Amino acid sequence: MLDPSLPPPEQLAALVTALDARLARLETIVTSDSDGVGGAAAGTPDELRPTAWPALDIDAAAAAWDELGAWVATVLTPILEPSVRQIPLCWPVHTWGRETLSWLHAAYRQAYGPHGSGFLAAEWHTRWVGHAFTAFDAPDTARGGVCDRPEHRTPGGDPGRRLRVEEWRPWFDWARAADLERRRAAPVAVQAESSSSPVPGTAAGSAG
Description:
Layout: H1 9-33, H2 58-80, H3 95-112, H4 118-136, H5 165-185
């Protein structure tokens, strides 16, 4: 005889089905958020993986450059409207520029991806964006947001003006081409960054 205090069988079946669905979703989230070898666990969606630049082959590096450039141009620039003091025009030719915007991009994907939330989006805007600007302002990078290399400065440029895609794009195209050329020349070795980086369109050199 059934216990009269229990819900009807059909209601119990519906509850079990709903719990199974919730458990499956929680398992997916936990798997996606777990850390593993190489920065991601088995089962982590590719779109949530951070970019490990030294480990990329030439094809993966080309795709990573294109993805980063598209995100900075179509998402970061119009949303944040940074000044060239916050993100210098020459950011692509410096490893600290590429790495900083890469991890900021990864954090953005986590916040606005399939398992994102309002909390993560708020944290991206209030925490990680500020950390990125602070990283650009570090003594060994672009103190005050402006790179200290004379050849990287724009004559007569206002360091407080808004960052414009057409201004950093030549630096980006040069840095992408130089990075892929290094990987083509040494496809197995970890890519070492040179300490010199010319103005785009001048004599060849390496990004630093």
